[in-house]
Design brief:
The protein is α+β, with helices and mostly antiparallel strands. The protein is 34% helix and 15% strand. It is built from 3 helices and 5 strands. It has a 5-stranded mixed beta sheet. The radius of gyration is 40 Å and the shape is rod-shaped. The protein starts with 14 loop residues before the first helix and ends in a 10-residue tail after the last strand.
């Protein structure tokens, strides 16, 4: 028996049911979005916490490093700024002494800048000049000795340096690690060194008489 095409029909959901299904879908989407937002916020909070922990660890390590590196520097009254380490030598080398002699005799004080610490205590006896300054400035201030007639004698006896000069007003510049010289006209220069044998003090005097009585 054939089906009557006029009596057949397709069943569609009632309008009210379609609206109900749409609302359910919207709610599902909203819930999923809220879940996604919550998940992202959780990840951000975890990242923030990890960053805070890393920052605290770095600060703690820096404090420990500062504490372990805070000991006194070098020997000698010049109070060197560098700590002894495997990359430097506490012994003033013969080559450095020879470089100092050559620079003083030639008047090429700039040749000493590479052998200086970053800050140098430069002192001129009988003047108000004295204090820390950059190595380049110290080289410039050594021009005080420009009029000196070489040669310089850096083979001074202890009877002059440690027995006389070291016991008088400017004695601090002739103790510890120092390398001092004079000219025939009695000008004086003394270099002191930090714990890495860098020049950290330059003392100059126009006349040895300023340092104490003749020996």
């Amino acid at each position: 028996m054939n089906e009557d095409p006029y009596n057949s029909y397709t069943a569609y959901p009632a309008p009210g049911k379609r609206r109900g299904i749409g609302k359910v879908l919207v709610l599902v989407v909203i819930v999923l979005l809220l879940a996604l937002v919550f998940w992202l916020l959780t990840l951000l909070q975890q990242a923030h916490n990890q960053n805070a922990q890393l920052t605290a660890q770095v600060a703690s390590l820096q404090r420990k490093a500062g504490t372990s590196g805070g000991g006194s520097a070098g020997s000698g009254s010049s109070g060197g700024s560098a700590q002894p380490n495997s990359s430097c030598s506490a012994v003033v080398s013969t080559s450095l002494k020879n470089n100092i002699i050559a620079a003083m005799n030639s008047g090429n004080f700039a040749a000493l800048q590479g052998s200086m610490a970053s800050q140098v205590n430069l002192v001129i006896a009988g003047s108000e000049k004295g204090g820390k300054e950059a190595a380049a400035a110290a080289v410039d201030d050594m021009s005080y000795l420009n009029g000196v007639t070489p040669p310089w004698n850096f083979s001074l006896p202890a009877a002059t340096t440690t027995d006389v000069w070291a016991k008088n007003f400017y004695g601090q510049y002739f103790t510890g690690k120092f390398f001092a010289g004079t000219t025939q006209a009695n000008e004086v220069v003394s270099f002191q060194f930090d714990s890495c044998s860098k020049i950290d003090t330059v003392f100059m005097a126009s006349d040895a008489a300023l340092l104490g009585p003749a020996h």
